[in-house]
Amino acid sequence: MHKIKAITRRVIYFTRDPSPELLASFEERDWEVEVAGSVRDVRQAVDDGSLAGGLVDLSSVFDGHDMAALEACVAMPNVGWVAMTAAPEFDDAAVRRLVRDYCFDYVTLPATNARIVDTVGHACGMISLGEPALVDTSAAEGEMIGNCDAMLALFQSIRKVATNDAPVFVSGESGTGKELTAAAIHARSARRDAPFVAINCGAIPPHLLQSELFGYERGAFTGASQRRIGRVEAAHGGTVFLDEIGDLPFESQASLLRFLQGSTIDRLGSNGSIKVDVRIISATHVDMEAAIEDGRFRADLYHRLCVLRIDEPPLRARGKDIELLALYTLDRYRKDASRRLYGFSPGAIAAMHQYDWPGNVRELINRVRRAIVMSEGRTISADDLELSAYVAVVPVTLARARETAERQAIELALLRHRGRLGDAARELSISRTTLYRLLSSHGMRYEQDSTAER
Ligand SMILES: Nc1ncnc2c1ncn2[C@@H]1O[C@H](COP(=O)(O)OP(=O)(O)OP(=O)(O)O)[C@@H](O)[C@H]1O
Ligand SMILES: [Mg+2]
Q1: How confident is the model at residue 439, as a pLDDT?
Q2: Does the Cβ of 174 fall within 6 Å of ligand 1?
Q3: Which of 96, 128, 160 is the last residue of a domain?
């Protein structure tokens, strides 16, 4: 998942008072050291973009007030910083925060040169592992991230329907990626170089539908001072995306149906029809079967729209993809953070799996973006995501779950057979020897029973 970049053996030693012995120790261990005496020197050394370890000698460079310059320095990318301090600097809360948020490690003096070189070597190694949350985007279909079975099936459906020209109906809860799916189908279809025109069906009042969708001729109505091409005609050769189709007012449904039946449009005020060549994709979060039953949606229109159907899985059914999407969002917006963020805390991950995500991917993106800005630590916590109520369930490994179940089964069998190991073993379908071994591996006490083996 993480891309490992070539490890360099280069150190930027930020100090106003370089120690010749320390320099010698670095060189002995084949490190190339660049001594920087000022923030400008550091910037110059960092500017060539190659990775390096960094050693900031706080006692010599921190003069008690120019915190901003120091911060700018250690926040530079591609350098794994280690702070070296003689401790008094740590009395300063701002210094402590700087070290906590930006440095990989620190060394308090006195310390051996070997320890300092080792620590810097480790920091340099860490930075060469890449940003901690680098997401492997091979899991993406274009802009769509996903790796779980449901998403792989979705990607396959997208590829299949893209080669066809029949209308596609995309169904899914709000924020699941219906619009992304529609755009992905268009982008993979032969129409990809022609326009993709999205129309929000719920937002057009019935009396404007005709002119919005199909346009009008000059003089068609008061104020129509020139001809205007409608949205459908504007998509000629491409795809029309009828978003929120379930919210299309009933009064508007007949004219849409007429268009779908004939593939022709009549501009308002015109007396001829124009043939347009568009592919129709529609989407909604509305339960269409229920809408038809309630008489809110015409069944004939629905059947025209839903020749091919794609169902977007809700986020809560995407398993590990929840983490993948969270990491992807962190990667994408991490520059909004005031400090380097190293990913999500285990509590945050547990909470993300517990939570129901009624707003699906959109909600996840919003929560992570807010957390990036609000986070005070090195990792995003459940609290930052405003999901602390969902941490309560401690994540259980499968091994731990098996162990607990095994122990419980043994305890119950022993209870039932009043401690007779032979009978308990028989019930559990294991040998006595295995039962002894399990009892001792679980640290359970047992009395050697006399009645057991006959
Ligand atoms: N698989 C995904 N990978 C990356 N980003 C995604 C994915 N799915 C959705 N998103 C993002 O989530 C947000 C919501 O997606 P989109 O607008 O396509 O959802 P929708 O189903 O149309 O929502 P609504 O019902 O509210 O209109 C967008 O910012 C989109 O980029
Ligand atoms: Mg949408």
Answers
A1: 87
A2: yes
A3: 128
